[in-house]
Amino acid sequence: MVKHNNVVPNGHFKKHWQNYVRTWFNQPARKARRRIARQKKAVRIFPRPTSGPLRPVVHCQTLKYNMKLRAGRGFSLEELKAAGISKKLAPTIGIAVDHRRRNRSLEGLQANVQRLKTYKAKLVIFPRRARHSKAGDSTPEELATATQSQGDYMPIEREKLAVDFVKVTDEMKSFKAYNKLRLERMNKRHAGARLKKAAEAEKDEKK
User: Fold this and answer.
1) What stretch of H or E contains 70?
2) Residues 40-57, buried b or exposed e (16+ Cβ, 10 A)?
3) Is the pTM of this model over 0.85?
């Protein structure tokens, strides 16, 4: 029994918690099912790459992440035109197209155009019907040696910036960063007043 002026015990513990426990006993079977599904899809879409259509290299949004590169939705119409690929032909040869995208920089445009040209050089196009090849289809020799690309095709390579090491000099050691910041902050604060004073002094001299 409770002693002194305290709460009377009234804990509600009989909640049948065993009925509400989340289990993942189906995880190994799901893993196997997904693997079999991937294998079946690879057979179904042969000889196309298993990773899907080619995507452009784009920068992430916002100031925090815009230095990072990632795969975009599709190539812009301007990029396709510069690479000499028709916008209607592109989806049929494994190139994703995004008609909404705009090229904001010349560097991004050139990088994706080069990506398209590299892809086009490696591309092997099978005829729609066997023994009925058309202009643009690959030669029988190329078709015989063609293999299906597994995994990421033309993965995005992020540049690693090189770090330059320098010897620490006595001048660097003696530099007072905090004092320099305070000085420059003061110079900025007094810039207007100093300009005004200099202009008045120049005016007085002319008189």
Assistant:
1) strand 69-71
2) eeeeeeeebbbbebbbbb
3) no
